[in-house]
Every structure is written in C-alpha cells, then in structure tokens.
Amino acid sequence: MVRPYLPLNSLRAFEAAARHLSFTRAAIELCVTQAAVSHQVKLLEQRLGVSLFRRLPRGLMITEEGLALLPALQDSFDRMADMLERFEGGHVREVLKLGAVGTLAVGWLLPRLADFREQYPFIDLRLSTNNNRVDIAAEGLDYTIKFGNGAWHDIEAEALFEAPLSVLSIPSIARELSCPEDVAHQTLLRSYRADEWPSWFETAGVTPPPIRGMVFDSSVLMIEAALQGAGVALAPPLMFSRQLAAGELEQPFPISISKGSYWLMRLKSRSVTPAMEMFRKWIGRMAEETRAQLGN
C-alpha cells in the first residue's frame, strides 16, 4: 500500500476499538462519535476485504485477521507517540544509556550530574552500575565507564583520569596507625584484584603480610564495611571525598598506588549520536577538572 494513501483515521479507529473491544469507549478516547468509529472501521474492512470484528450484542470480538493486524499498528503508534514526546524546547529528547562502575557512579559521577542536566535537559540519561564487568552490546549501552588499562577488543576507549588507592579507615582505627607497618596488623579489606595490597606495602617499604580475609566486588561495599569498623580499606580517596570531608573516614598516610585509569568506552561499531557526542565532551571537561585536582 502506498504511504500517502494509508487510511490513518481508519487504522486509529480500529486500533482503539480493538484495545477497548468497544466502539463507544474508542470514540470517547478519540473524541469522536461512536458512529464515526464504526464507520471508519467498516471502511477499513472494505478496503482490506476482511472482517476485523464480530459485532456482538454486548461489545466486540476481534477476528483472527484483526489479531494479525493489531500488533503492527500498536507498535507503530507507540513509536510515533514516543518520537513526538521527545520534542521539547526546540530539541529532540534523546536517550543516552550509560553503564558505570558503581564506585565511580556514586563517588564521582552523581555529584556532577546536576550540571549535566542543567546543560542538556533534553537528554534522558539512563544510568546502570556494574562491578567493572559489563557486556556493552548485550546491555545495549551507548557508553560505559570502566576501570583498567584501556586495551579492550573492538572498543574505542578515552582515558578520563586515574584514581590512586590509599589506606582509608574510620578515625578510631586511624589513631592506631602511627606508621605503615601498623597497617599489616589490621584486618585488610580487599578487592578481587589480589595485587593491590602487596603493591601498597611495597610502595610503603613494608614487607607485605599474608593477605587474607573478606573480598569485595566494589569499593563502595568495601568502604561501607570499613565505616562499620570491619578493618582498613585500600580505596580511591577521590571517590570518598564526602566521607573524608565529614570526618567519617581518614587517610592516615599520603602513600598511594595507581593500578589503572577510568575510561569512557563505546563499541567501535556503535554510531555516535548527538547525545553521545555532547556527553563525551561534557565528561571530558569534568575529567580535566579532576586531573587538575589530582595534579596530573
């Protein structure tokens, strides 16, 4: 059927009547008379050469032909409605799907999102978190922010900033740590990266003790355990600046190690949308400010 001759009024009437199984309720929805809806449906049936409804004393029963037509119409109308709703203030609202490591999302990204919303109110950011293991394609993400070295297959990665790790603990434990050797006698809260604590002790000039104990899949969870007095954590102070500023956590020593950077990533096969480009430039500015703060 040629597009300019699509019977849009008849199709709308049929779709509404099929949802309600009533010409009367469809007419109320469409702000027309019951007779007008019935007439439009009859025109469509004549054009298609099939019956779309069986008229019953109390309502309608959709036929097999009607059931075959209905899903395509509902999908089309839903997509058109969604597209029209995306226009706002002279812009097309765009959806941006972002995945991020939970630690960065909570400790760094969320405090800056008000700025993003203010600058780009027409972009609907949909944020999901992970523990640094994510399948961008399977989750349908436009971007993800991941920690590592930037070498990922079929991925375009843009470095954001490093997040050095330091010893963090509650004040009562920090008072027991007069020198780095004292850390070895504490319960060491650790991530799944087994080399972090040994690297910190070596940087501090201390022979690493046996590393045992609880393993956490995110620094957010590890710090929560530290806040409850479960031990000392090795985590990025940058991501827990609020807890440090509030005095809930302390950083007993200036010693830190770096095990990688945060990277903004997308599939090379993913075409860059205007919303993606705006977000890339915005987060690049935020990252530049953070690098300046860290002195690198």
Automatic annotation (TrEMBL):
Pfam families: HTH_1 (PF00126), LysR_substrate (PF03466). Keywords: Activator, DNA-binding, Transcription, Transcription regulation. It comes from the Bacteria. InterPro entries: LysR-type_TF_proteobact-type (IPR058163), LysR_HTH_N (IPR000847), LysR_subst-bd (IPR005119), WH-like_DNA-bd_sf (IPR036388), WH_DNA-bd_sf (IPR036390). Residues 6-63 form the HTH lysR-type domain. The keyword ATP-binding does not apply. Belongs to the LysR transcriptional regulatory family. This is LysR family transcriptional regulator. It comes from Rhizobium mesosinicum.
